[in-house]
Amino acid sequence: MKRNVISIVLGGGRGTRLFPLTYSRSKPAVPIAGKYRLVDIPISNCLNSGLNKILVLTQFNSASLNSHIKNSYHFDIFSKGFVDILAAEQNVENESWYQGTADAVRQSMKHLEKYDYDYILILSGDQLYQMDFREMLDFHIENGGDVTIATIPVVAKDATGFGILKSDDDGNITSFYEKPEYDILDSLKSEVSEENKHKGKEYLASMGIYIFTRTILKKMFEDGAGDDFGKDIIPNSIGKYKTLSYQYEGYWTDIGTIESFYEANLDLCQDLPQFNLFSSSPIYTRARMLPPSKINGSYVSKAVFGDGCIIMADKIENSVIGNRTRIDKGSTIVNSYVMGADFYQNTTEIVLNDRNGRPNMGIGKYCYIEKAILDKNCYIGDNVKIIGGKHLPDGDYGTHSVQDGIVVVKKGAVLPSGTHIG
Prior knowledge:
By secondary structure, the chain is α/β, with parallel strands linked by helices. It is 21% helix and 29% strand. The chain contains 10 helices and 30 strands. Strands 15, 17, 19, 20, 22, 23, 25, 26, 27, 28 and 30 form an 11-stranded mixed β-sheet that branches. Strands 1, 4, 5, 6, 8, 9, 10, 11 and 12 form a 9-stranded mixed β-sheet that branches. The chain is globular. It holds the Pfam family NTP_transferase.
């Protein structure tokens, strides 16, 4: 079956709900699982699905994202594949920046004219899942779809936080409600598998993954269908175009908040995580050529390590440890994500810091860190205690912030020896 597709990954907006991780980077550039970036997930899903014409649309805090994509994704000269960046731009026809997800694609359509494609796959840059898009494309083509939306069955308590689609027995979407009230949910049940029905997952939530037939999307834009896919394009397409629901049965989570980001990372430490890093479908990222991690005298349980770490901690439990992390002796890390560092300190600097009582990059001696996220390049002194939990009020505190009881130490923050948080 012909699948002449171009894939578009949306770089996202300001990402305020992921602050402070998005203070100096866009959401898709946020490090995940110790060695990847969020944008690696949709790009890898595309490549594993045989789709190698990929554009990433960027706007806010895009420097690190642009650098990561430039350094990560290279195709040989005999391949027609590419992962290119389309940055938001002002021009004589349009002086405004992107006004929404659909507007970002609309403004980029002129750049797509040089490519040969029949279908457009629209993806978010801040979700965690593994999907073979070929199956969704085949579903779209076989059923004569104009628009196909990937949906996932959810329970009633989650349904009020999503855009909920109601479909008939043939997969045609008949109605759409953005974050519906609880008291109207009974009327929004769709046909799902017996297993999902038994679990109470009878509501179809939009995953923010769309396939459009090229001519249809072009017509929608010409007709002024709106600036946002979820709020404008999708609701307006129902009844006017053949709009289909493609039900996805696997694991999927939207990395929209600090809490969801934290939980998704720590789930990777479980014996059977919901997101399988060890599958036959690899997650691609930048090859850094780092040495293997070195662990000395530490008790380790349910932990994931990146490359190039030097670990002398007493205990690391249920935690993700990112590339180039240094943890000194006597320290304990529990239920935390330590993102690591972008570079190694040289020996001279380390000796000078020790002599002058300044923290080195990484985590010092006899620290205790629990329920925390440490962004990259943090300098944590000796005897530092960070204990997250619901007892801590949400807020921004200079070197760190607290959201939902999770302490987030900011990128490059310095916590002097003896600092206590929590």
